[in-house]
Amino acid sequence: MxxxxxxxAVELIxxxxxxxxxxxxxxxxxxKALITGNQVGMELTYFDELGNQLPHPLxxxxxxxxxxxETITARVTNSQSGCFVETSLSLITSVQPQIxxxxxxxxxxxxxxxxxxxxxxxxxxxxxNQSGLTISYFDTNGTALPSPLPADFQNTTAWxxxxxxxxxxxxxxxxxxxxxxxxxxxLKPEIEINEIYTICDLEPSLELRYSDSFDSWKWxxxxxxxxxxxxxxxxxxxxxxxxxxxxxxxxxxxxxSYAFELKRSAPPTIEQxxxxxxxxxNYIEIRASGDGEFEYxxxxxxxxxxxxxxxxAGGIYNATVRDKKGCGTDSxxxxxxxxKKVFTPNGDGYNDxxxxxxxxxxxxxxxxxxxxxxxxxxxxxAQSVGWVGTFNNKxxxxxxxxxxxxxxxxxxxKNHFTLKR
Length: 421
Description:
mainly beta, 2 helices, 3% helix, rod-shaped
């Protein structure tokens, strides 16, 4: 007695893309193997529900003629014995998800091209009121993302990121539809603004004015009061300010804030001019008060950041301090006394006279000159050109001579110098 062949029932799923129950996507390439298994020498024939024989092999892809579910009879026949057995090949249509394309989502830069995107309405926009669907999200590398996406989803690729979406029929994952959408980060509005602005105490106010076309402006003082809602501000009070600007782009309003300070600067005042003269390192040190940033000069022309001037010759100086931002100046005249250590009265018109530098600022001063033994030789005044190296119209020899000067205000000085011929 010949054994009957074995026949396995098979179900194929085809996706219905327009809800008419007909699918053009039944894959019949592996049907014979599914029905007959590992048996050899078997012939396979197909019949529709009316008993009409169908082609073998079946067309691939196969289009069902009966909506939603069509049953084909599959007969497995042993080619040697003629024995056969029948089973069913069921063609079942499954609804393919109908989804909407998604517009890009926009959000404001929170730093380095990263932003938080509101994804709460993504699924509603994607599938509407459809149910029985499974939604999956992937990045461009195919890495699965959470589903549903977090309400405040942060992009992992700076400035722009593409998200792939796969929507499956929950009962048949083979029926799916794919789409995608972009996350785009908007730049925050930007403006050039200093951290500190300075005005002089004598100035009533400082105005900042901009031409940038932002949607909103808000200038706030440190106490929270709003000073201006325009692109310009007039500031009178010293203190801290915050500017907040806003601009709408791609339907998203982005804001940016800048903190800055207004400082009032009092004009500089010289409190003291310290100096040393009659020395090998004559110096002037200008000591000033005020809250600005100052620079200093002793000639009114050349200014420096340091208030100390060293290794300077005797003479009359105009010690000056001025505010770098133009908030005023102050100056004092300073006389540094010094004298020639050597003079050469040889009639060549160069260094022929000995006189104290700066002495003209002390018109009542008297200078007395002595030889090395204390003999009085000459008295000269502040108005004279100085001593020419003679006594009783005779030229004095090359040697050291001494002088004594009283400038007043307890400024008395004695020292010596050298005459060379």
